[in-house]
Amino acid sequence: MNQLTLAIREEAARLLDEGTVDVVIGFKAGTLALKTQPAFITQAAAADQLVHNGFGQNNLASFLTRRSDGEKIGLVCRGCESRAVRVLVSEHQYKRENLYLIGVPCTGVVDWRKVERAGGFGPERSANASHAAEEGDEVIVTLAGQEHRFQRADVLHDSCQRCAYPNPVGTDVVLGDPVPEVSAQDAWSAAREFEAKTAQERYEIFAQESERCMRCYACREACPMCYCTECFVDHNFPRWMESMVTPGGTQAWHIVRAFHQTGRCVSCGACERACPMDIKMTYLTDKLNDDMQQLYEFEVGANDDAVPPFAAFTLDDKKRFVR
Amino acid sequence: MSEPWTPRIVVFQCQYCLFSAADREWMDTRLPPNIKRIKVPCTGRISPLFVLNAIQGGVDGILVSGCVPEKCHFKEGNLGARRQLDEFRRFLNYLGIESERIRFAWIDVTERGRIQREIASLEETLSLMGQLERLVTRSPLAVQGEAA
Q: How confident is the model over A96-103, as a mean pLDDT?
């Protein structure tokens, strides 16, 4: 049991006891050892279910837009979740005064797929892992009575490996000590690497990735920013794009899904972790965020009142009106 | 013998930006058959999805014709469109669709005949670049937007 887990439980119990919040959203141990599951704690006595470790695959901010309006929510926030909350608040999706943010510094999410690959066990077997734990720089997975050890840095999710903001921002309380932040330069490394390839290579990679899509929309459900009550793909009159699993349909989905995240994506990687087909998606949104930073000096979730670039056009733009 | 290849172009035309009657008449009646014109109330109406749909449906190039900044009929529709469509063009370029295939023409009141020049110049560029084969994945459409 780590110190942070105890601190979160204590804080959650206190908030529920004092009536500051109606529900605390965090993680609890689930049926799979490598994935903790979101927990909605409404009673102080149940607060000891909460855990904090590197196995929380979801972005908890995605639940805000699904809770009833006016409910007071205590949200356990890692760096990406706290920035997602900022974006949601600036888009008027939830009132900041109804939120109590419990910030926890994050050391990254362990990618269960990387564990599967590094350990050489397939999906069926990793689901049977009886125990998973973190010890310093190591991740220990127990499978059929046998212990497998991995270097934590090797099995972190890609987004977490290049995460520029592991510490929560703008939270009501921060538990635990801040973790060191890597330089922001590395944040878009995947996008830069992709961009260095030729046009033909880039298109082929994109086509290969999107080809595997079976349009379950798990990426959309996992994303804190995808909260539209009717998504453009669900429209059937007018039908904006092919709704079948065809190259045309899946490519359009991946292009437009990413494009709708322009200046909004917090690079948490929840979409990739949710994808059952292991499709890479962050290289798309990273490029868009990189552009927003270069063109409009806009950084997602960097401060409380920044308006997203697509909502903040001004006449000053005419100086660099495109041809 | 098949006919020589000519680039297919879709022109998104803001309904307010062509002031000269001769230009409007040319767009309405004398547009070559390889060019399809889609009239929109304002460039702000153009969703990136329209552009994507055109490309997936097999066009080789796209021209967006709108009003210059400050002259927008809806005050700032073209400013919003510019931010979105400019970024969408960059994004498509990132995925392997050359930026030169999507062009913008922000036309002022006095620029009579510019729309013809812009279309001709885009057509020339596209002739050199050849047919766009990437992203052309959409099943052909029959009448009224229903899949064939």
A: 94
CB A40, CB A25: distance < 8 Å:
yes
| Contact assignment for A251 to B137 by CB distance below 8 Å | yes
Nearest CB to A287; choose among B48, B91, B135: B91
pLDDT tens, position by position, A175-212: 988 888 865 557 788 888 899 999 999 999 999 999 99
Are residues A323 and B96, on separate chains, in Cβ contact within 8 Å?
no
The model's confidence at residue B148, banded by pLDDT at 50, 70 and 90, is very low
Nearest beta carbon to residue B70 from set A248, A288, A318: A318
Q: How far apart (Å, rounded) are the C-alpha atoms in residues B97 and A210? A: 16
Given a contact cutoff of 8 angstroms between Cβ atoms, the answer to whether B84 and A310 are in contact is yes
Sign of CA dihedral A250, A286, A203, B60: positive
Query: Would the pLDDT of B139 be above 70?
Result: no
**A255/B95 touch (CB, cutoff 8 Å), yes or no:** yes
A315 at interface of B, judged by CB pairs closer than 8 A: yes
Which of A206, A232, A246 is facing B96, going by the closest CB pair? A206
Compute the distance between CA of residue A273 and CA of residue A276 in angstroms, rounded to an integer.
8
What is the rounded distance in angstroms from the CA atom of residue A41 to the CA atom of residue A229? 26
Q: Which helix (H) or strand (E) holds A102?
A: strand A99-103
Q: How many CB pairs under 8 A join A and B?
A: 105
Q: Are A72 and A18 in contact (CB under 8 A)?
A: no
SS (H, E, C) chain B: CCCCCCCCEEEEEECCCCCCHHHHHHHHHCCCCCEEEEEECCHHHCCHHHHHHHHHCCCCEEEEEEECCCCCCCCCHHHHHHHHHHHHHHHHHHCCCCHHHEEEEEECCCCCCHHHHHHHHHHHHHHHHCCCCCCCCCCCECHHHCEC
Determine the pLDDT at residue A322.
59
pLDDT digits (tens, 9 = 90+) for B13-52: 998 888 888 888 998 898 988 999 999 999 999 999 999 9
User: Mean pLDDT throughout A284-290?
Assistant: 92
Percent of chain B with pLDDT over 90: 46
Q: Using CA atoms, how far apart are residues A272 and A294, in angstroms rounded to an integer?
A: 25
Q: Which residues in chain B have their CB less than 8 angstroms from residue A315's CB?
A: 69-70, 76, 79
